[in-house]
Amino acid sequence: MPTYTIDRFEGNKAVLLLKGNEAEEKLVDRNVLPESAKEGDLLETSDNGGYRILHKETEKRRQQAKAKLEALKNRPNSK
Asked: d(Cα 2, Cα 10) in Å, to the nearest integer?
């Protein structure tokens, strides 16, 4: 099953990016997403035609991004 990232919300629509090909956008009605869905969540399609949040993968990705940001903040200035 394809995996998507919620890039942003535009009114009652959500813009999803295909994992592995983030240039490919998919516009879906916000009401087909879980109510708790937010920007940055990883999703996969469910059997009922909607989407489900991949909670573990989303949290892992957020922790990786946080670690990268901390590493950049603590990097000595290169001058």
From this structure: 22
Q: Do residues 39 and 61 lie in contact, with contact meaning Cβ atoms separated by under 8 Å?
A: no
- Of the pLDDT bands very low, low, confident and very high (cuts 50, 70, 90), residue 69 is very high
Section 19-39 average pLDDT: 92
| Euclidean distance between CA atoms 2 and 43, whole angstroms | 9
Tokens 């892992």 appear where? 60
CB 7, CB 15: distance < 8 Å = yes
pTM value > 0.85: no
Q: Is residue 36 very low, low, confident or very high in pLDDT (cuts 50, 70, 90)? A: very high
Query: Would you say 10 and 42 are in contact if contact means Cβ atoms under 8 Å apart?
Result: no
**Strands 42-45 and 21-29, sheet pairing:** unpaired
Q: Are 57 and 76 in contact (CB under 8 A)?
A: no
